[in-house]
Amino acid sequence: MAFKRGRSRVHESTILCKIDGFDSRKAAAALIGHWVEWTSETGLKIRAKITRVHGVKGVVRAHLPAKGIPGKALGSPIIVVK
User: Fold this and answer.
1) Which pTM does this prediction carry?
2) Number of DSSP helices (H) and strands (E) in the chain, helices first
């Protein structure tokens, strides 16, 4: 999980997620409309909606309703919920 980036800007409300088992654009397209969820050690749950595919290797973009996620969440595992 990482933020969507441009050359000089970081889009904090959009994250890029690589989901295990989804290695192609076509497979990842089946996840559009699902939600991804990250849970902290204290029980805080942050959800983001998968909006589109990013590239051809199965990475998806997910939009956060609230601004940003903790830096600790970047690179950590997430789960896909319906």
Assistant:
1) 0.88
2) 1, 6
